[in-house]
């Protein structure tokens, strides 16, 4: 009985060892090319979508680094940059999502989430700003602040 069990286990182990998945490796001998550049969106450059519902702000910047080749087979990553030029600069990969609370006085608070995300096409990047409370639909004086970004393009 032990011999039959051993032979059966050996057969299963052999089946797994000799019938593995095939993997094709693609080797890049020169390594990828990585370009990185900074851009900012000043407060007065944000445009308002001005649609019936679910409005947002957006800004489009030129990005000649995003060629057709990059668009078709490269990688584009964008980071929101904070505290540039200070002793504590930092970056956060986008989409950037933060939960906020704001005191309205008299023990009243407002809560919202802000989201900054992006899309890209050949030669350009569009950055979007949305607040979950859509308060800017009620108070038209609300505008996103100046924001800085870093774009990394790899191909």
Helix-strand category? mainly beta
Report the C-alpha radius of gyration, rounded.
Answer: 26 Å
Strand content range: over 45%
Question: How would you sum up the global shape?
Answer: extended
In DSSP terms, counting alpha (H) and pi (I) runs of 4 or more, how many helices? 2
Low-confidence regions: none
* Fraction of residues in helix: 10-25%
Order of helices and strands: HEEEHEEEEEE
What is the end-to-end distance?
60 Å
Mean pLDDT: 87
Q: Tell me the number of strands.
A: 9
How would you describe what is shown here?
It contains two helices and nine strands. The protein has helices at 2-18, 68-73, and strands at residues 34-41, 47-48, 57-63, 75-82, 90-93, 96-105, 108-121, 123-131, 147-154. It has a five-stranded antiparallel β-sheet, with no helix packed on it. The N and C termini lie far apart (60 Å). The mean pLDDT is 87.
Give the topology, please.
Blueprint: H1 2-18, E1 34-41, E2 47-48, E3 57-63, H2 68-73, E4 75-82, E5 90-93, E6 96-105, E7 108-121, E8 123-131, E9 147-154
Antiparallel strand pairs: 1-9, 2-3, 3-8, 4-5, 4-9, 6-7, 7-8
Sum this structure up briefly.
With 155 residues, the protein is mainly beta. The protein has two helices and nine strands; from the N terminus they run αβββαββββββ.
What are its keywords?
single chain; 155 residues; mainly beta; four-stranded antiparallel β-sheet; 2 helices; 15% helix
């Amino acid at each position: 009985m032990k011999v039959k069990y051993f032979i059966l286990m050996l057969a299963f182990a052999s089946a797994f060892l000799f019938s593995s998945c095939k993997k094709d490796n693609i080797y890049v001998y020169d390594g990828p090319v990585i370009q990185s550049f900074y851009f900012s969106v000043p407060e007065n450059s944000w445009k308002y979508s001005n649609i019936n519902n679910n409005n947002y702000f957006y800004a489009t910047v030129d990005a000649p680094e995003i060629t057709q080749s990059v668009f078709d087979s490269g990688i584009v990553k964008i980071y929101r940059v904070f505290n540039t030029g200070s002793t504590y600069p930092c970056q956060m990969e986008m989409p950037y999502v933060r939960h906020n609370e704001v005191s309205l006085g008299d023990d009243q608070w407002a809560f919202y989430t802000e989201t900054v995300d992006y899309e890209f096409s050949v030669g350009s990047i569009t950055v979007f700003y949305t607040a979950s409370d859509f308060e800017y639909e009620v108070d038209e004086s609300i505008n996103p602040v100046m924001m800085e970004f870093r774009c990394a393009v790899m191909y």
